[in-house]
Amino acid sequence: MTATSPVASTEAADLATLAEKAGTTFILALFVDLDGKPCAKLVPVEAVDELATNGVGFAGYAVGSIGQEPRDPDLMAMPDPASFTPVPFVKEGLAIVHCDPHVEGKPWPFAPRVILRTMLSRLAETQGLEAYVGAEVEYFLLRREVDGSLVTADPGDRSARPCYDARGVTRMYEHLAAVSRAMNELGWGNYANDHEDGNGQFE
């Protein structure tokens, strides 16, 4: 039996409590490589203490663009309990936790979250500034025809000036309502949905 630090014990308890409260059965322990590819392992909730205390291992060279070669030690993805997010609209009982890759107990300097944290600390220390970030989510809804071509998902979305068109929004009500509910379940505070400038474009 190995000794556990007080910090590790607290994080394990925090993650375990969050998972229990959310009715989580599996946790997607996730990080991204330098190309933005999401890399993950699906961890059963029964192993949540092990995940929180020791992380979950990855062969770094197999991950992708993360600055490792086959001879390098494994990456250990250490979860950030503050990022724990239930995603029952993806799969019932599933939650995501973002992780920081570590190598031999230290944050891996080529991991995007580690790079971002370093830059934010530098910004605060050298200029006394704090970064605030928001997302403006815009996308096109398309469907693929039999011949392989792409067309707008809503056949009636043909207006030359579709921006804010109430008809376009109501025709896609089910989709927009599902997106809004999912965003609010994530705690993102979705306050409005609208039709944007392009045919099939929504925000």
Summarize, please:
The chain has helices spanning 6-22, 48-54, 60-63, 112-127, 166-171, 173-185; strands spanning 26-32, 38-44, 56-58, 75-79, 85-86, 94-103, 106-107, 139-140, 142-144, 150-152, 201-202. It has 203 residues and is of the alpha+beta class. Residues 1-9 have low confidence and may be disordered.
Summarize the helices and strands and which ones pair or pack.
Elements: H1 6-22, E1 26-32, E2 38-44, H2 48-54, E3 56-58, H3 60-63, E4 75-79, E5 85-86, E6 94-103, E7 106-107, H4 112-127, E8 139-140, E9 142-144, E10 150-152, H5 166-171, H6 173-185, E11 201-202
Parallel strand pairs: 1-6
Antiparallel strand pairs: 1-2, 3-4, 4-6, 5-6, 6-7, 8-11, 9-10
Describe, in plain words, how this protein is organized in 3D.
This protein has 203 residues and is an alpha+beta fold. The chain folds into 2 domains: 6-127, Ubiquitin-like (UB roll) (Roll), CATH 3.10.20; 139-202, no CATH class. It is 31% helix and 23% strand. It is built from 6 helices and 11 strands. The strands form 3 sheets. Strands 1, 2, 3, 4, 5, 6 and 7 form a 7-stranded mixed sheet that branches. Strands 8-11 form a two-stranded antiparallel sheet. A two-stranded antiparallel ribbon has the order 9-10. A hairpin with a 7-residue loop joins strand 5 (85-86) and strand 6 (94-103). Helix 1 (6-22) packs antiparallel against helix 2 (48-54). The chain is globular, with a radius of gyration of 21 Å.
